[in-house]
Amino acid sequence: GEVMGGLSEQQWRTLLAELQPRFDVSVVAFARDVFDYSYSTWRQNVKTGVHYHDFEAYLRLRNEEELGFSMLSGFRRMRAAGVPLMLVNYDRHRADIVSAFFAATGLPRPLENEVPLVGHRYNPSLTTSETEIVRLVGQQIANASFQRTVVRMLMAREPSERIEGGFYDPDLHRLQLERHGDAIADLNRMLGD
Fold first, then answer.
1. Is the pTM of this model over 0.85?
2. Residue pair 63/4 in contact by the 8 Å Cβ criterion
3. C-alpha 24: how far from chain center
């Protein structure tokens, strides 16, 4: 899971020492564009009530205070700990990350009738406008139950009503590249593509 990127180098070493005598351990990690990842994380955090900052404030907090943990430095810690790491370019395989996972591991992909993997969203995102609604509600009404009700109501709308307009801000992207440029370059070398 995403939480594994937050493990320290020592925690990885301890985990490997525990598992490797009994298992052939490899970690498949999907590397994602830093702006896309940050934007997705921000929307998820608003959706789950972690915070109600706007995206720019979230990025500035994350950059100045290291809000949360950096997945980019997580890859470095894994490599330093000797974790057998298979990196997959998420952006290249976004349409079907399940097949990318099985291809990376060399495992046979289950048949669709055995395990339904296509067309199922296990953690759907709010659209940009829905995220803004939840963010504003959360800032005004400090009630987690009410916030969850608003999220459920928005997510229940018909797909034709939930149009994603997309979002991109070159200045905020540049902020991310400046902050994480060395780690991104290192990760790109690891990906080799």
1. no
2. no
3. 26
Q: In the prediction, which pLDDT does 190 show? A: 79
In whole angstroms, give the CA distance from residue 129 to residue 143.
20
Stated as kind and residue range, the H or E segment containing 28 is strand 27-31
- Give me the residues paired with residue 30 across strands: 88
Residue carrying the six token digits 């564009």: 33
18's CB contacts (< 8 A; 6+ apart) are none
Question: Distance between CA atoms of 50 and 142, rounded to whole angstroms?
Answer: 12
Spell out the residues 6+ positions from residue 1 whose beta carbon is closer than 8 angstroms to its own. Answer: none
Query: What pLDDT was estimated at residue 1?
Result: 57
Would you say 13 and 77 are in contact if contact means Cβ atoms under 8 Å apart?
no
Residue-level pLDDT at 118: 57
Classified as helix, coil or strand, 86 is strand
Q: How far is CA 161 from CA 55, 137, 151, 172, in A?
A: 23, 20, 14, 28
Report pLDDT digits (tens) over 83-98. 998 889 998 988 888 8
User: Please, are residues 78 and 27 in contact by the beta-carbon 8 Å criterion?
Assistant: yes
